[in-house]
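pls ignore typos typing on phone
2-deoxy-2-amino glucitol-6-phosphate + seq
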Amino acid sequence: MCGILGYVGSKQAGPIILKGLRQLEYRGYDSVGIATIDHGRIELRKDAGRVDAVEKKLHFGDMIGVYGIGHTRWATHGPPVQKNAHPFVDESGKFVLIHNGIIENYLELKEVLRAQGVAFSSDTDSEVLVHLIAKVYRGDLLKAVFSILPRLQGAYALCVLHTDSREIICARNGSPLIVGVGNGENFVASDVSALVEHTRRVIYVRDFEVVRVGEHEVTCFTFEGKPVAHEVKEVSWNIEQAQKQGHKHFMFKEILEQDKVVEESLKVVFSCARSWNRIHIVACGGASYAGLLGKYIIEEVARIPVSFEVGSEFRYRKPLIGKGDLVVVISQSGETADTLAAVRLAKECGAHTLGIINVVGSTMAREVDEVVYTRTNGPEISVASTKAFLAQCIAMYQLAYHLKGGVFEFAGFGGYIKSLIELSESIKLVAQRYALYPNFIFIGRNRNFPLALEGALKLKEIAYIHAEAYQGGELKHGPLALVCEEMPTFAICPQDEFHDKMLSNIQEVKARRGRVVALGTAGDTKLAGLADDIFYLPAVDALLYPLLESVVLHLFAYHIADMRECDIDKPRNLAKSVTVE
Ligand code: AGP
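k done
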């Protein structure tokens, strides 16, 4: 959470940083700020609000100076107001700093600094960093950064500038940081999307490293000051793939890309060992629903017991895992703090960790024992995950078949996905009828239940509609009390071995005057006779339906959110990459 960006070169820094921050905005959009240095003077502009709104007022593009830093904030400490926006300048006006992460002992550090006479201008944890550096500075910024690091507890990617030296000093512990290597110019950023327009050559900075980024050179050190070598890697995607390409929202563009995602995903190969005492799947949010689907599919296909848990719970338990166990983590960003903590715990317990991760070079990808990358036809920018979710679900089937000793195949998969995407306009017509309901129930049974969870999550996160998901059989144990004319139910009811049970659940809803939108198999007249509205999936093997359902669920939520005029790509209070607890 929070996007950070730095530039040092010979071009005007303001417009470059502004453009990069637009790409990073999905990481946080509470406030935005840029600082550049020109003729030994810091120029600082920042305010609460989205990049484009603040740009209209502050005109970042006019900022001169050939090096600078910028930040988009997802508020943790202190409300999203101007004084809490980054960058922060010290009292001498010579140091300026941005930070992504949380400094857990900031109160203690603040007290020490206050006792030394420092007056704080914000409520943030981050501001302590710039004052600490200013206090210990003796003419060498790099040394000053080294000397404050042992005093910090928490997570950070920080970048600091001094008016007298044309370089950015960065440090990383727990928050993402990459360096973009250009020709006579270099960049630092939270992720590749912010700099891929300028260079595709990147260095993935590791935890406990400090980097000095000058115009012509990049030098990495350990926290102890030892120089470390880094390979410069080539990013495989380009700037067009990180743009909306004429679509109103990234989410819609990303839904439309899914036939290509399927094509690419089917090429993914698992090669991990097949024999494990036990398999554990850990992930967060939408990725955790892909993980839950994985539990159903692996147990069904490979007949191996699988436990499933969300990262935020797993990390604080004493999980019964050890040598001989496989812990599978699933993450789009590869930076989710809770999932990352689960990886570390699993490794401590002696388990083998396998990451199913989308962002190449991300922290998790580097920390797991084995990584399999999902292939999503370029980056996923929308906060609401769609194409990465589908890729994660496909990976679960591939893992299941691999563990069984076979290979996952799904003839015609890409074509099916294409035909479902083509339903968009008819889904939109139905969505119109449901856009004003404040509540929704989603039901599904067995392997379709994780998809019900996913459908409900999407409606919550992008349309701000309260939605809950239940296994069809659970309705009668309580939630049925909620069903009435004002509470519609979305029933996932493909023609599988649970079909008749689901029809009974739908009858229960209808008997209480609840409206039902159903997702069923083409030609299902029984379901059509019961549901108020229906979407059809092509008839496939029962095991495979979950792989077709998310397209419809995502389009349904998308069109409702669009009708409600929600900020679809940047839902309130959320951020794409959840790097704090
Ligand atoms: C999905 O739409 C969400 N934005 C969110 O739940 C997400 O899946 C979760 O935060 C996990 O993120 P990750 O895949 O990057 O680890």
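The two ends are 11 Å apart (CA to CA). The chain has three domains: 3-235, 243-409, 419-581. more later
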